[in-house]
Amino acid sequence: MTMQEKDKFTPELRILAASLLSMAVILVWAKYFGPKPPVTQPQANKPGISAPAPTAADGGKPDSKMMGTTAAKSGPGSATGATSVTAAAPVGAKSDTQERSIVIENDLYRVEISNRGAVVKSWQLKKYTDDAKPPRILDLVHPKAAEQVGGWPFAVVLDDAELQTAANAGLYQMSPEGASVAAPTDVDFSWSDGHLEVTKHFHFDGSYVAHVEVSAKKDGTPITAGIAWLGGFGDVTVANPANWDSVQTYYSEGGKISTFLPKKLDGIDKWGNGLWQGGKDFTGLEDRYFTATFLPANGAAPGTLETRYWKTSETMQVAGQQTQVPVSEVATAIAGPNTALRVYVGPKDYDVLKKMTPPLQGLVNFGWLEFIADPLFHGLKWLHNYIPNWGWSIVVLTLIINMLLFPLRISSYRTTLKMQRVAPEVKAINDRFKKYSMRDPRQQEKNKEVMAVYQREGINPVGGCVPMLLQMPLWFGLNTVLRYAIEMRHARWFGWITDLSSRDPYYVLPVMMGLSMYLVSKMTPMTSTDPQQQMMMKIMPVTMAGIFMISPISSGLAVYILTSSVVGIGQQWYLNRAHPVPAPTPAKITRGKKS
User: What is the DSSP code (8-state) at residue 206?
Assistant: First the structure.
């Protein structure tokens, strides 16, 4: 190459050539190796993010801009479709324009559901009345308490408090839209603010069991949603004990029911976000006669429910003063995208609850004497099939029991006669040893001498107490039946006795019961000559009458004891005529001393 040819490549030409080559390299790299620019979506397909989420203050009504927006659809190969694995697209907002209610009725209940929060505003049991004067159809929902605490039955419980407030304040779209429908029927509710989406489905049939299913999603991702009974439960008009002191939350785990009175409950602040107790068979709220029980859907395995329970408070008039009283509340959920439950809302009818799956008869509080209370209860129910009045059924049951126990009464009476015959001899032995203290070893000698007298005469010292020992468990078992069996609630006998489950308002039955018991004790031979023991036997009827006046013991039990005493008077009169009391045996002299 000559010197002249080299001079053709001036510095300017070299710079130009380098620049063109660089641009070519950049264009080729950008064409085949550079990153793809993002695909710009049309403005109409963007989710409305300018409007804030609805709150309780604005009633959960979304902004009109949000109402008109829809979520961007992402197809295969699109940019949004490539990122949908990590972030789900928000849903469209959905809300009603005004508040409305729907009423569902069957022969057993009347339920009112509001589309604001899709919550229950009234649950009336048509076959039961409350304790108001005059009585009204019983409503298990407490509107005043619910308004104060800000929660109603079948509210949604979420782990985020703000989302929960929005979900329970939103105006849900409802289907069907009629004001009243008859069961069997299905009612659906749906609501969304563009980020949170909640749906509820109710199914009602001809029984006390309703079916409810709730699901919640945030930006398309399922979140845990529970169903709660908030704002109070049960017959708020009961006075003894008051409703707020007797309502209990409960759950069953492994077949064992655990109950919690309000004083055992913490406030809602003790439950952290996402804190649930799992492994439950069923959960709920109860008062003395009614329950709201959350159960797993048909076919679900036991132990699949989660629960949380707490108390809040409401202000009400108590004895003329504004008082804070507790309100027990409970929530139930199932871990997963949907919570599907059966809910029994109705009376604690023993036989109906026993047929449930799982069985619920343990909610009828027969206690540890259930083995006695259960046959007494079913015996009463059998008699009631033929005797339509529960009071007279109790009278007939009493007659049957006393006839069955009459042979024991005869045996007890004969033992009493024998003990009366040897009473002077036993008294002489006691007098010889009364100077010694009860801890003195010589008291053992006294007991041996007394027992020798009893063995000689063939006397069982406790034989005279057998009828009473058998009657006491019957009293306790029957009182449990009368106080907790729903059949006894507001059951009339006659006259002023309008509720066999509560005490006599005028104390007539306790007084008559005490007098009849005293007359029986006067007719029955005394087994002891001790004046103190004789005085105790005379005081016992007065004590029993006083207990029935002071304590909330059922008037039905007073009917039972009064009938037993009247029958006892007749039986004792017969025994006294058939087996008159013999003359006492004079005390024998042994070892040179009166024994």
Answer: S
Query: Cβ neighbours of residue 77 under 8 Å, at least 6 residues apart?
Result: none
pLDDT in tens, 283-298: 999 999 999 999 999 8
- Could you give the CA distance from residue 425 to residue 455 in angstroms, rounded to a whole number? 13
User: Taking the CB of residue 33, how many other CB atoms lie within 10 A of it?
Assistant: 7
User: What is the rounded distance in angstroms from the CA atom of residue 485 to the CA atom of residue 354?
Assistant: 13
How far, rounded to the nearest angstrom, does the alpha carbon of residue 587 sit from its chain's CA centroid?
A: 64
Q: Residue 530 has which token pair?
A: 């001790």
pLDDT for the residue numbered 581:
64
Q: What is the pLDDT of residue 534?
A: 66
Strand spans (E) along 29-162 = 101-105, 109-114, 119-129, 137-139, 155-157
Instruction: Name the residue among 178, 183, 174, 195 with its Cα closest to residue 52.
Output: 195
DSSP 529-581: --HHHHHHHHHHHHHHHHHHHHS---HHHHHHHHHHHHHHHHHHHHHHHHSPP
Q: Residue 53: pLDDT band by 50, 70, 90 thresholds?
A: very low
Strand 321-333 to 282-286 pairing:
unpaired
CB atoms within 10 A of CB 424: 15
Contact status, residue 427 vs residue 529, Cβ threshold 8 Å: yes
What domains are there in the chain, each with its CATH number? 101-365 (2.70.98.90), 373-578 (no CATH)
Give the pTM: 0.77
CA dihedral 80, 84, 88, 94 (to 10 degrees): 40
| Structure tokens, 224 | 């845990």
* Angle of the 423-433 helix axis to the 442-457 helix axis, nearest 10: 170
Q: Which residues of 471-484 are buried (b: 16+ CB within 10 A; e: fewer)?
A: beebeebbbbbbbb
Q: Are 288 and 238 in contact (CB under 8 A)?
A: yes
pLDDT digits (tens, 9 = 90+) for 373-427: 999 999 999 999 999 999 999 999 999 999 998 988 888 888 888 887 888 888 8
- Expressed in percent and rounded to 5, the helix, strand and coil fractions of the chain are 40, 25, 35
Q: Quick check: helix, strand or coil at residue 381?
A: helix
